TrEMBL record:
Pfam families: Glyco_transf_7C, Glyco_transf_7N. GO terms for cellular component: Golgi apparatus; membrane. The keyword Transmembrane applies. The chain crosses the membrane at residues 6-26. GO terms for biological process: carbohydrate metabolic process; proteoglycan biosynthetic process. Residues 39-123 form the Galactosyltransferase N-terminal domain. It is a single-pass type II membrane protein. Its main location: membrane. The keyword Transmembrane helix applies. This is Beta-1,4-galactosyltransferase 7. It comes from the Eukaryota. It comes from Rotaria magnacalcarata. Pathway: Protein modification; protein glycosylation. Residues 130-205 form the Galactosyltransferase C-terminal domain.
Length: 281
């Protein structure tokens, strides 16, 4: 009899102690969570080819821009070294795949468009994709569905729409396709508003048409096919070979990942990967 009572008392005391410790521990956890926000990390994905003169300037500008905003980031320069026409969408898909384990959001970033106004924030896009290079502030592109230039998107959102369609060889339209991909699953696209700057001084556009001629050519069914969405094609159908992957440093010591990539062309699907004159050589 006496033993049972003692056991019950011990049990009750243990129970109360356990309860108090749990409450204390949980409240501590909650406080910690509030004090330290989740650690987000951004991959700046830059589709790239033969732009060494612009790379140093870009990295130097972006590194200090992002550091000022306390945005934890890595730079991933995706360099197309095959002989096919430039494929911006495929390069972005590849940058996404190769940085996926390191980050939880990406910005697809043209190398020739530099943000100048810190009201443009590169923070985690909690509510949905943010098109920073908004047509309202972009120095040249002013059409409403424009989502090129600079677009920030969570990895999970990019994955949900299977990234970008890799059918676009040559210049243009892949971003219009991406706009439709986001819209068809009901994603809201956010853009900066009410900036203190306008379309002349929000970004610096360093593109020099004389050096980098745009490849506007359209061959065969390219134009017609370019209007289709093909949601089943995307980063999961982008085939490529990594020729080299290196962590490099600029003269100022800014680290970046340089990925030399050969994109595989499926000639059955897109026989416009090359200029006809190239294939004759
Ligand atoms: C541009 O890049 C391609 C592929 O890497 C290379 O074959 C070519 O020599 C480069 N051209 C110039 C002008 O650097
Ligand atoms: C923009 O700024 C004006 C004036 O400060 C304000 O009335 C308006 O609500 C703002 N619009 C947005 C979308 O924030
Ligand atoms: C844009 O802002 C600059 C600097 O404030 C100003 O000089 C210029 O007139 C503005 N341009 C337009 C089109 O509003
Ligand atoms: C790629 O993803 C799309 C959409 O999620 C899916 O329909 C398609 O079957 C996938 N393709 C491959 C080769 O995994
Ligand atoms: C392309 O089509 C040909 C003929 O239909 C076929 O033999 C070949 O395997 C296809 N290639 C690819 C990469 O699908």
């Amino acid at each position: 009899m006496f033993k049972t009572r003692l056991l019950i008392r011990i049990f009750i005391i243990y129970f109360i102690l356990f309860f108090l410790i749990s409450v204390w521990y949980l409240s501590k956890l909650e406080r910690n969570e509030r004090a330290t926000p989740l650690n987000h990390r951004l991959a700046v994905i830059v589709p790239y080819r033969n732009r060494s003169n612009e790379l140093e300037l870009f990295l130097s500008h972006m590194n200090s821009f992002l550091n000022t905003q306390s945005v934890d980031h890595i730079f991933m320069i995706v360099n197309q070294v095959d002989k096919h026409r430039f494929n911006r969408a495929a390069l972005i898909n590849i940058g996404f795949i190769e940085s996926k384990s390191l980050v939880d959001y990406i910005v697809m970033h043209d190398i020739d468009l530099l943000p100048l106004n810190h009201e443009l924030t590169y923070k985690y896009p909690q509510y949905g994709p943010i098109h920073l290079a908004s047509p309202e502030y972009h120095p040249i592109y002013h059409y409403l569905s424009y989502v090129g230039g600079i677009l920030i998107i969570k990895s999970e959102d990019f994955e949900r729409i299977n990234g970008m369609s890799p059918l676009y060889w040559g210049w243009g339209r892949e971003d219009d396709n991406f706009y439709v991909r986001m819209k068809r699953v009901g994603m809201n696209i956010y853009r900066p508003h009410n900036l203190s700057t306008n379309n002349t001084n929000t970004f610096q556009h360093i593109h020099d048409q004389r050096i980098h001629k745009r490849d506007y050519a359209k061959y065969g069914k390219q134009k017609e096919e370019g209007r289709k969405i093909y949601p089943e094609l995307g980063f999961n159908t982008t085939k490529y070979e990594i020729i080299n992957k290196a962590i490099r440093k600029t003269n100022q010591g800014i680290e970046y990942i340089m990925l030399d990539i050969k994109i595989e062309c499926d000639y059955n699907l897109t026989d416009w990967c090359d200029h006809p004159i190239d294939t004759a050589n």
